[in-house]
Design a protein that fits this description.
alpha+beta; 2 domains; single chain; 208 residues; Zincin-like
């Protein structure tokens, strides 16, 4: 049995290519697989009682699907001389990738903060959450009970506010139900009746 919080390194081979992986053992129910920020390595979160056999089996099953999704995810949020901001195509150029990320984060964070504060009041969520933003490759939002914080993908700034709100509501609903049960989605749909349509826009990367 692994210690909670411990980390292990492994290397997985698929179609002749090596994928270095970092496994973090936590108090959780399911194994979660995603790419790291470089897009070349793997990050796994696994229940502390997981065996390497169960982890390796999960990677063998889902790594091909993860790679296929990555291959198809041609980012339409920007092009030569333009970028989507809040669902609108704006003429814009950046000197570097770092400059673009800095610009997007500066645009996104005040809006994320404002939308979280608005829906905390609407949904009766107290105390207020700390709001974070980062460039995430496998999810749009996360709710941490440990730090009482919400993290949002900076990529959300490409979408209209209604789509951003659907993610904010989803994460705040975890304040009341920390699973994805019918009770959880009842809360989400109470405050965001169009949630499933907006979720589809996220999944299909429909920015307008």
């Amino acid at each position: 049995m692994h210690r909670v919080g411990s980390k292990e390194k492994r290397i997985y081979l698929y179609e002749g290519k090596q994928y270095p992986a970092e496994i973090t053992f936590k108090r959780m129910r399911n194994i979660v697989l995603r790419f790291d920020k470089s897009g070349e390595g793997l990050l796994l979160s696994a229940p502390y009682y997981s065996t390497y056999l169960s982890i390796d089996s999960m990677v063998k099953k889902y790594l091909p699907k993860l790679l296929s999704r990555k291959k198809k995810a041609i980012n339409p949020s920007e092009g030569e001389g333009w970028i989507y901001l809040l669902g609108q195509k704006e003429a814009m150029r950046f000197e570097s990738e770092e400059a673009k990320k800095k610009f997007l984060k500066e645009k996104a964070m005040p809006l994320f903060e404002e939308r979280v504060r608005h829906y905390e009041e609407v949904m009766g969520v107290k105390p207020p959450y700390k709001v974070k933003g980062r460039f995430m490759t496998s999810r749009y939002g996360a709710n941490s009970r440990k730090t009482h914080s919400l993290s949002f993908s900076i990529e959300l700034i490409h979408y209209p506010v209604a789509v951003i709100d659907s993610v904010v509501i989803h994460e705040l609903a975890h304040h009341f139900a920390f699973d994805h049960s019918s009770a959880f989605y009842k809360i989400v749909l109470t405050y965001c009746p169009e949630y499933w349509a907006l979720h589809t826009r996220l999944r299909k990367r429909q920015y307008e």
